[in-house]
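Saturday, quiet lab. Running sequence design on the structure tokens for the scaffold JK sent over.
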């Protein structure tokens, strides 16, 4: 039986953005609410536009309990076409992947999204013609290859009034002045220069218009191999050591070309490596880090753990959670990437050595490592505007192929790899280990990851600056409106109103250096599901002792090698690395200085907010970080109101922006997954421990049964 609420005759129309067109729709569609494993749900209309798939509930009227953190572009029942991962049809209780032309139409539709949401729609009560139109429409517009110009990005840019200034203190790095400013900021202008050699893309379409190279590099050298083999500057350390990247020569090539290229590279190295004054370390990332294919495979396995169909599936996987998590290899890849970034930081900080990152295109793992090193070493990159400028510099202008790596056009699965998501996962590890060091929150990172799939911003929808430039002029679309003015994702007012934007800012950000050892410890909350892989080694006592620092240092030294072997015996850290790592961790943290992530064993965790936010079973009512955030915001509001009273007494007018702190109504009722999910009806957890369920599997297959619930609670009590 299913609980059926009779559909009303009230007409519900979708809210369309400028340039958005309604393509097909179906009425009397039943959307399941899978939170408690039952077949409860609501009727409504399912529509497909050239921007999104949307379910319109009959009760779509604004609600008093509407979340304060609401996206103005994408609603909770909206899925942008780029956010659709896979679509399954259910035929006689069997799931089948839907692609291309369909001969038979399903009775149920399951849509898995790239932001880990899962939608279940029942089409039994929908007219046959409407089912055909909506299913084939959704599959066609979200799964089949398309041309770049067909992206909604262009429809929106030509129709929307562009009255926003998207810069928001973010340095865009599309002018020579931006590069010169960055050189000056990092004191790199003594040894490095910004060049205009690639104006008009004369050298290469893959390189940005402007970039920075060592002073000694000539224009002829840059032209010789279309920019390959040229060290390109990323960032300079306070001691003068610089981080550089280089696009390597392809490995498959003529034997005759190889000696010439080797001689060219030797000449380049000699000009920038002048011992003992200027040392250079080359780091070939394609040899020392996992391949893009490995990263894609690991993430594909990893995300399957969170695309949960129903409550029964969740508790069934809970039995073997650790082994499933470890077998994906995703946390191990994060650990390896962070470790490599620490190694590079050691060369720059302690050895005063220039580091040259090498990769075939220098636009994938080079972007990850160079960004991480800057986040760890430069406190400016830990501010919101600094981090956004970093993404612009290393990724957007640096030429990371967002279009191919995110597979926005569904052209080739072979090119797809979650490289940018890997960076955000690594940055999240640092954010959760050292919250006061960052001006932004984990919510900011989660929203940024979601914005990868919102095609009204140009930021993540081109492969290079050249590709964006040639597609920006209106002539390319045969319209007379002149060049497009694409929006940038950094203008957060497009997606969120000011009250919602407050959740992106960290109220506990340490404005000034506070080397206070006690602040390094962050409160740990017990989650229903452990989020990191456990270690069997003994952990040192958390009690304070007279010789605490000394004993901690000894224990770390003794256990260091054992832990390394446990994680990956073939990847034993060199002694200098371990010494640098342990030495830093034995001292109090300077939140505005160098930050090194803790990378041993269970220190690498699952980004709970991003991956568990749509799963009611993982919610902690009134718990999690929201419990502390709510208290902090409450205190901040009290401080602000007192400030206003003081200002009024001194007749100095109103203080600042009194509305900048949102009050979290009924914060005790919010769940740990706030602000993405409000407190929902809790799913029924099996009354027996999961280990007992596993033992019973053979007898009665209780874990897989979802048609009835065996309640043993009364007897146990």
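Result came back. Writing it out in full:
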């Amino acid at each position: 039986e299913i609980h059926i609420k009779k559909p009303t005759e009230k007409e519900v129309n979708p809210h369309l953005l400028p340039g958005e067109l309604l393509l097909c729709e179906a009425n009397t569609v039943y959307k399941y609410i899978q939170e408690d494993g039952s077949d409860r749900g609501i009727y409504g209309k399912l529509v497909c536009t050239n921007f999104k798939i949307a379910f319109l509930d009959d009760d779509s009227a604004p609600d008093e309990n509407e979340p304060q953190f609401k996206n103005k572009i994408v609603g909770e029942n909206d899925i942008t076409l780029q956010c659709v991962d896979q679509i399954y049809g259910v035929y006689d209780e069997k799931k089948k992947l839907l692609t291309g032309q369909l001969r038979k139409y399903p009775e149920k539709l399951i849509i898995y999204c790239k932001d880990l949401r899962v939608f279940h729609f029942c089409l039994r009560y929908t007219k046959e013609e409407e089912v055909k139109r909506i299913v084939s429409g959704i599959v066609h517009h979200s799964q089949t290859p398309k041309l770049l110009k067909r992206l909604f990005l262009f429809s929106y840019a030509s129709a929307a009034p562009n009255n926003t200034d998207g810069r928001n203190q973010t340095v865009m790095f599309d002018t020579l002045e931006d590069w010169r400013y960055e050189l000056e900021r990092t004191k790199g202008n003594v040894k490095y220069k910004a060049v205009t050699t690639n104006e008009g893309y004369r050298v290469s379409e893959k390189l940005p218009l402007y970039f920075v190279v060592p002073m000694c590099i000539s224009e002829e050298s840059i032209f010789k191999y279309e920019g390959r083999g040229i060290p390109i500057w990323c960032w300079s350390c306070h001691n003068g050591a610089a981080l550089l990247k280089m696009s390597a020569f392809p490995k498959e090539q003529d034997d005759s070309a190889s000696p010439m290229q080797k001689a060219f590279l030797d000449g380049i190295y000699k000009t920038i490596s002048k011992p003992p004054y200027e040392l250079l370390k080359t780091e070939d990332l394609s040899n020392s880090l996992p391949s893009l294919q490995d990263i894609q495979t690991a993430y594909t396995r990893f995300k399957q753990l969170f695309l949960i169909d129903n409550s029964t599936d969740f508790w069934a996987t809970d039995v073997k959670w650790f082994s499933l998590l470890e077998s994906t290899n995703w946390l191990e890849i994060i650990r390896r990437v962070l470790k490599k970034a620490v190694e590079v930081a050691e060369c720059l900080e302690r050895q005063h050595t220039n580091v040259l990152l090498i990769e075939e295109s220098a636009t994938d793992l080079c972007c990850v490592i160079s960004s991480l090193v800057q986040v760890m070493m430069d406190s400016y990159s830990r501010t919101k505007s600094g981090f956004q400028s970093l993404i612009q510099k290393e990724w957007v202008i640096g030429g990371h192929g967002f279009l191919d790596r995110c597979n926005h056009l569904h052209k080739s699965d072979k090119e797809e790899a979650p490289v940018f998501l890997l960076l955000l996962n690594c940055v999240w590890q640092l954010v959760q280990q050292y919250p006061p060091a960052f001006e932004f929150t984990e919510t900011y990172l989660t929203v940024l990851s979601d914005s990868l799939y919102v095609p009204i911003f140009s930021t993540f929808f081109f492969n290079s600056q050249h590709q964006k430039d040639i597609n920006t002029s209106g002539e390319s679309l045969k319209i007379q409106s002149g060049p497009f003015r694409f929006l940038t994702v950094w203008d957060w007012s497009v997606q969120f109103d000011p009250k919602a934007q407050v959740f992106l800012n960290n109220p506990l950000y340490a404005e000034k250096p506070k080397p206070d050892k006690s602040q390094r410890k962050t409160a740990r909350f017990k989650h229903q599901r452990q989020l990191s892989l456990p270690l069997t080694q003994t952990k040192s006592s958390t009690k304070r002792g007279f010789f605490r620092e000394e004993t901690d240092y000894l224990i770390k030294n003794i256990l260091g090698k054992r832990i390394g072997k446990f994680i990956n015996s073939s990847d034993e850290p060199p002694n200098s690395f371990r010494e640098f790592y342990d030495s830093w961790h034995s001292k109090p943290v300077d939140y505005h200085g160098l930050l090194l992530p803790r990378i041993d064993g269970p220190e690498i965790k699952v980004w709970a907010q991003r991956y568990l936010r749509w799963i009611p079973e993982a919610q902690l009512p009134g718990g999690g970080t929201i419990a502390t955030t709510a208290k902090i915001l409450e205190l901040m509001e009290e401080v602000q109101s007192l400030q206003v009273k003081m200002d009024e007494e001194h007749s100095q007018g109103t203080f600042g922006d009194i509305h900048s702190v949102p009050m979290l109504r009924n914060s005790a009722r919010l769940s740990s997954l706030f602000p993405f999910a409000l407190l929902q009806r809790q799913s029924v957890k099996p009354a027996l421990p999961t280990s007992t369920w596993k033992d019973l599997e053979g007898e009665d297959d209780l874990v897989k049964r979802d048609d009835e619930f065996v309640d043993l609670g009364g007897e146990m009590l």
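Notes for JK: The CA atoms of residues 180 and 222 lie 19 Å apart. Residues 625-649 form the longest helix (25 residues). Ask whether to fix the surface positions before the next round.
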